[in-house]
Amino acid sequence: MHEIVKASKIGPDVFHFEVIAPKIARKRKAGQFVVLRINETGERIPLTIAGADPGQGTITLVFQVVGKTTAALSALKEGDSIQDIAGPLGKPTHIDNFGTTICVGGGIGIAPLYPIAQALKNAGNRVLTVLGARTKDLFIMEEQMRRVSHEVRICTDDGSYGTKGLVTNVLDEWIKELDNKVDFVMAIGPPIMMKFVAKTTLPYGIKTLVSLNSIMVDGTGMCGCCRVSVGGETKFVCVDGPEFDAHKVDFELLMQRLQAYKEQENQAMEIWRSNHEIPA
Amino acid sequence: MSEKERPSKAERMKMPRQPMPEQDPGERARNFKEVPYGYSPETAMLEASRCLECKKPTCMEGCPVGIDIPSFVNLVAEGDFRGAVRKIKETNMLPAICGRVCPQETQCEAKCLLGKKSDPLAIGRLERFCADWERASGQVELPDIKPATGKKVAVVGAGPAGLTVAIDCARAGHHVEIFEALHKPGGVLSYGIPEFRLPKAIVGAEVKNAENMGVQIHYNYVIGKTDTLDELLEDFDAVFLGTGAGLPLFLHIPGENFIGVFSANEYLTRSNLMKAYDFPNYDTPIPRGGCVAVVGGGNVAMDSARTALRLGAEKVMLVYRRSRNEMPARAEEVHHAEEEGVDFHLLTNPKRVIGNEKGWVTGLECIKMELGEPDASGRRRPIPIQGSEFEMAVNTVVIAIGNSPNPLVPQTTPDLKVSKWGNILADEATGRTSKRGVFAGGDIVTGAATVILAMGAGRNAAASINEYLETGEW
Ligand SMILES: Cc1cc2nc3c(=O)[nH]c(=O)nc-3n(C[C@H](O)[C@H](O)[C@H](O)COP(=O)(O)OP(=O)(O)OC[C@H]3O[C@@H](n4cnc5c(N)ncnc54)[C@H](O)[C@@H]3O)c2cc1C
Ligand SMILES: Cc1cc2nc3c(=O)[nH]c(=O)nc-3n(C[C@H](O)[C@H](O)[C@H](O)COP(=O)(O)OP(=O)(O)OC[C@H]3O[C@@H](n4cnc5c(N)ncnc54)[C@H](O)[C@@H]3O)c2cc1C
Ligand code: SF4
Ligand code: SF4
Ligand code: FES
Predict the structure, then answer these.
(1) What backbone torsions phi and psi does residue B3 show, to the nearest 5 degrees?
(2) What is the radius of gyration, based on Cα positions, of chain B?
(3) Strand pairing report for A81-82 and B348-355
(4) What is the pTM of this model?
(5) How far apart are the first and last CA of chain B?
(6) CB A88 within 8 A of CB B225
(7) 3-state secondary structure of B155
(8) Residue of A33, A43, A222, A250 to mutate for B, most B C-beta atoms under 10 A
(9) Which residues on chain B place their C-beta less than 8 Å from a C-beta of chain A?
(10) How far, in Å, CA of A4 to CA of A19, rounded?
């Protein structure tokens, strides 16, 4: 059992939890995730470890409500517990002093991006950050990202905050501005965003990594549910990833496979909604 | 029955093997309840009385853990069920499980003398009966535990190999902790073998016995991630690796990543471990209904096919590239699958998965095979018949062609020697690996095998762990 010691809402449908998991708090590295199961009847879902306090023995989880499990998680309060948390899983991000790096975060992807940006900065990189969301209210963790970045640029689809436009426009301009002197790009967000970031950096030949969010069950390489195609080879996101060379990922396949359970997911969500509410 | 009332040896040879009552195939193919009901005490005694009490009980040679079969069987014949359980448990701590899942027809029962003239003694069914009788009696006896030694043993993986080591080391007075990656114990017994073949309450009860002996189990603890093997060695005097063959193999044919193509591990884990068959009471989804093709011919394939039926499939096709005789599954499972209506496509091999523009499976292209010369495994090699391709319309494809060793521990332990297939190298008799204080056994060493072989390996390893902890010699 893992007690939730802090729970807060940090955006529309986005929640920030601090949960007791001392071993994971000590071990985790940027880029890794946990698989959790709320209770006996729950599903196993992966969430990135967005931060940790080894002293307190807690890990930070930031999640967006998209279906039954994340909804049920959002309804838990401080003092409640999560039955199972396994981790830290996945390969840590390869952190080095690359030079100039651009971190691109979209929507909830900013949460998993944060520990990576932090590690990149600690390793001596110049960390430039592009954050994007559909609209102003959807931004999360902007302050934290500013603290671990040398410079942050912001854009929204509707122009309600920062530049109007997509992260890829901002990214492309920034690369040009820097005369293509960018050594590394890390992008986390919706698959479609990551796909276009990959398209943007490819002509410049900039090494680009993305963190993939395929559906998982065990998270230890046992089931193959999380498989993706990278450079024509089948890889398991949970053990070979979650980060891969953006220029080699088959994003279409990833996006298709994420649709696998739509019908049952909607059914589960409807049942949940019929007698619960997402906290305001 | 007393000895005098026992039928003569000649009469015993003529007695028929007692069938085990089971659910009607039509009914059971749609529910997850256990298929056979087990023997009644009367039937068990009758069946047991068929044993010839051979001077040289060849049956025992067929049992990888060497259960004293004639002794326990004769106790059953006499109605001393408590005594029979005690006898079994001298060598096998998980009889309720082995009685259900051992491939008896190639092990103990294959070597039974009765089988020469008539049907072999139903050793597995009797073993199962004894264990079930004990559990139902509410008085499960724990083995004696030696005084505490102060030594600590870590066991990685709560499958049959790991559980056996844990029990045997606890018996010797050592402090034992199990580290299990998943949220439930049992390994394949929990996530792979379905409820209708091995009720999870039985696995739970066997694990409870281990806990009652003082074994501690840490769940959600992935060695190689949560801790490395070297970190475990800082806290423990010996470590046993029983991490199994959990890495699913795929066919590497086109279309294998379409939605609706599963490894058997995923399909069975969703259904068994996550209880997706009880969706939406349980949250994990799994496809239901439709037409399902299962590729493979082992226990894993039978379990997948029979699970598909129970999930409401209209049609389940089993696609196997060799013939019926080469199927590695337990005879009883093949028989049950056929009875329940699984459609066998033998000498057939998949070539390509067909899907629609949205990425969903719509069909499986197969090719017919014929048997050629025997290959390295001694089985006749299947060869494709040119031009015999045909298509099956399916919405789900389950690939059940085997598993390879789980690489998490070797990957993070550079000085642990593995074979080129990734199996941990360990001495067969002692389970000793290339690393001091580290032992291994079960599927991680042998590749995917059987429950009883994993337990046998666990038993050997535990004996040598106990010896190592006593002498300190490597
Ligand atoms: C390595 C990794 C890290 C992640 N980190 C975060 C994070 O930090 N914050 C966050 O909000 N989300 C994160 N996700 C996504 C998160 O796991 C899903 O949003 C969550 O599982 C949805 O479950 P649900 O029951 O609420 O929704 P559902 O209604 O079940 O599904 C909604 C959508 O979520 C995806 N999904 C469903 N089940 C799973 C599953 N078992 N595993 C993965 N995805 C699934 C599918 O695309 C589905 O269409 C991460 C995913 C991965 C693979
Ligand atoms: C579907 C199916 C049906 C089968 N049917 C039969 C049958 O009828 N009869 C029969 O005799 N055999 C059968 N088998 C084979 C049998 O189940 C296996 O041979 C046996 O379970 C092997 O036992 P094991 O202890 O070596 O490994 P497993 O049972 O695989 O257990 C390994 C355990 O280790 C855990 N683990 C793995 N890596 C780590 C790690 N890094 N850290 C912590 N824990 C870890 C796993 O989660 C798992 O719980 C079947 C197998 C399958 C898949
Ligand atoms: S353990 Fe298996 S092989 Fe041994 S006697 Fe029992 S059923 Fe037969
Ligand atoms: S070989 Fe068969 S008949 Fe002989 S002792 Fe064993 S079980 Fe009994
Ligand atoms: S989630 Fe099962 S193999 Fe990756």
Answers:
(1) -55, -40
(2) 23
(3) unpaired
(4) 0.94
(5) 51
(6) yes
(7) strand
(8) A222
(9) 181-183, 191, 219-222, 225-227, 246-248, 250, 256-257, 259-260, 262-263, 265-266, 269-270, 274-275, 279-285, 358-359, 406-408
(10) 4
Q: In which residue are the tokens 């007698």 written? A: A275
- Asked whether the beta carbons of A61 and A47 are under 8 A apart, the reply is yes
Q: Specify whether A72 is located in the same domain as A204.
A: no
Is residue A26 domain-shared with residue A116, that is, in the same domain?
A: no
CA distance A136 to B252: 46
At residue B10, the pLDDT reads 85
Average pLDDT over residues A163-180: 93
**Minimum-distance CB partner of A220 among B219, B222, B266:** B222
Domain spanning B9-137, CATH architecture? Orthogonal Bundle (1.10)
Which residues lie closer than 8 Å to B317 by C-beta, 6 or more apart? Answer: B291, B292, B293, B294, B342, B343, B344, B345, B392, B394
Containing structural domain, residue A162 = 100-257
Show the low-confidence residues of chain B (pLDDT under 70): 1-4
The CB density around residue B385, as the number of other CB atoms within 10 Å, is: 12
pLDDT, tens digit, 9 for 90 and up, residues A103-156: 999 999 999 999 999 999 999 999 999 999 998 888 899 999 999 999 999 999
Domain count, chain A: 2
Dump pLDDT digits (tens) for A216-258.
999 999 999 999 999 999 999 999 999 999 999 999 999 999 9
> Which residue has tokens 């694990």?
B207
Evaluate whether A39 touches A83 at the Cβ level (below 8 Å). Answer: yes
User: Strand (E) positions, B189-290?
Assistant: 216-218, 238-241, 247-248, 261-263
pLDDT at B457: 94
Residue ranges matching CATH 3.50.50.60 in chain B: 152-246+405-471, 249-403
DSSP A40-67: TTPPPEEEE--EEETTTTEEEEEEE--S
φ, ψ for residue A188 (rounded to 5)? -135, 130
Question: What pLDDT score does A137 carry?
Answer: 87
Ligand 1-lining residues (CB < 6 angstroms): A 33, 43, 45-48, 62-64, 66-70, 108, 111-112, 213-216, 237, 242, 258, 265, 269
Peptide bond before B248: cis, by omega within 30 degrees of 0? no
The number of C-alpha atoms within 13 Å of A236 and in the hemisphere containing its C-beta is 22
The token duo for A85 is 């948390």
The pLDDT value given to residue B4:
54
Number of the ligand 3 atom closest to the C-alpha atom of B127: 6
Does residue A129 belong to any structural domain of this protein?
A: yes
Does A224 sit within 8 Å of B274, measured CB to CB? no
CA separation for the pair A59, B461 (Å, rounded): 38
Nearest 5°: phi and psi at A216? Answer: -130, 160
The first and second tokens of residue A29, run together, are 């590295």
